[in-house]
Amino acid sequence: MRWLLSSSLRRASPLSSSPGFVRMLCADPATTPSFDDGRAFRLKRTSEIVRALTVFRLCSVPVLVTHCDKLLSFSRSLLGPRLFSLLMRATAYGQFVAGETVLEIRVAMDKLSMMGMRPMLAVPIEEDLGENREGEQQYDENLAAMLDCVRISKSGAKTTSPMMQLKVTALLSAELCKRIAVLLSHPGLSEQFSLTRLLHSMEGQEVRFSGLSDGEAGHFLCGLRRLHRVGEYAKCQEVRVLVDAEYTYINPALTLVTMAMMKKFNQSEPWIWNTYQCYLKDSFSLLSADLSVAVRERFCFGVKLVRGAYMDKERKLANEQSYPDPIHQSWESTNHSYHQSLDMMLDLIAKDSKQYSIIIASHNEDSVKHAMKRMQELGIPKDGACVCFGQLLGMCDHVSLTLGQEGYAIYKSIPYGSIDSVLPYLVRRAQENRTVLLGIRKERELLRRELWRRVLRRSSGPAGGTL
Fold first, then answer.
1. Residue 338: how many CB atoms within 10 A of its CB?
2. What is the pLDDT of residues 318-338, one digit of tens each?
């Protein structure tokens, strides 16, 4: 059946849906926040807890995650479209996706707000259709979807700082980004891709880029103007744009166009943010270099700090093409890389909170606690003006809910769209985050405890929690 969040909201009591109740329920302000007791899950309906337990149990079986694309295709063939849709809405789609219609999306956004969290919308466009498109049609359709994302982010968010996520390869061919990344590695050719030249191209001027064919140059100009339209509309609507990082072989081009957008739109505050993947050995040096550019070019700098999600494919490519593995060899090294970049950004923010901003996009409790401690030591406020936290919808809720009730700005990345359009996203997320999914035993245990508490309460008297 269709997952109707609106009915959930209607049944929630006025007390349980108030921010004051959230703070009262989850923690004593005088104590250090804990992610261990699971009281935050009392804000969830029993059906949501059962669904989460079911999905997390399935995601903890490696063979199911590895072959989930084939299993989903087989299920669709076996069940037919209607039953398959019902199954997905009762499981993975309902757990990780906001919905398809504007009404469903806004209900999901409202529910997050009521629980002390903020929505960060994402259009889950997975394929680069450049090879199969007719002209620029597919990319123009993606542009329309991105502009809709800006509009919904602004109109549906109950926050003064709405955010959305942008995937550059939805608006610009990944193959062309790969080609530009190669050109950037040659000093003689890289000079033509200056931020000023890109900015002129974004604003409609005809700029020639040697090293690109006429077709490639034409597509590049169209892509830059599409990115400019998103940035311009987002700034007008006061929506912050977080640009995704992707694979190492195209990231130099993605950073290039993102920095050009920053130069254009980040003159007074950070409206455009770039993503840095700390599982890469050179992540800290890349972040430091881009910070230097921002200082030299005098624009504000926003950072989305992640560990990364393409580890298996990156290592496979490195092995196939005989170049050094770009990924840190251990979890400890990645943690050190993450905290090194995090500390540098927090130090800068403590000195100039208008020039720099960061979203700590992590499901790792140690990193979250590290950031909270450093914020307190540096006197950085919790309100999210310059530092906020980010996690995926449907995951790590024991951390997200606790952060929200403690007064920290916590955003949940919420994809939306039809089941068919979102399936590739769900498959990729499951396979890229298999390590995270295998590590959610704690969340599963906290959910089980809360479900068992409700069963015992119901068997002995009036039900507790939001049933």
1. 28
2. 999 989 999 999 989 999 999
